[in-house]
Amino acid sequence: MTGVETREGPETIRLGHKGRAVRVALALIGIVALVHGSVRGSDDLWPFGPMSQYAMTVADDESITFTRITALTDAGTSVDVPLNIEGAGIARAEIEARTPNIEADPSLLQAVADGWARKHPDQPKYVRLELIRDTTTLVGGRVVGPPTPKVLAVWQVRR
Questions:
Q1: H-helix or E-strand containing 102?
Q2: How far is residue 107 from each of residues 46, 92, 135, 156, measured CA to CA in Å?
Q3: Torsions phi, psi for 68 (to 5 deg)
Q4: Per-residue model confidence as pLDDT tens digits over 77-95
Q5: Whether the Cβ atoms of residue 95 and residue 108 lie closer than 8 Å to each other
Q6: Exposure on the CB side of residue 86, measured as CA atoms within 13 A
Q7: Single pTM value for the model
């Protein structure tokens, strides 16, 4: 040898016209799906839709909204429903994305009660659910007063 090592390997194969056309078509389909999901979609379309839980900046003189669900239990207590997979089996982002649907049809909250009962059979069951939007007002970037709650939907849980 002359001190320069060479590697023998498979010969280079070039992508043909059909292969290029398929790759370009797939890339265009992906781009169209992303644009469609971002403009018209909800979290259900992920990864081709928005993820509502991504943080955004808020101007110093705006309001911040926070959606939550409270439950009255069969033990007579009022609790905040844990909106995550381990809690009620549904994430807060899903509730926020479906808020207009839930307002129009509060029976959609039944899935929250069913998820809680299935995941926590030893805990008190939910008998009534309220979808609430808390609004916190900022002035000069500082919170002014406590959040203002607004009940958006109420559902008596079916057993």
A1: helix 99-104
A2: 25, 17, 24, 8
A3: -145, 165
A4: 999 999 988 899 998 888 9
A5: no
A6: 0
A7: 0.64
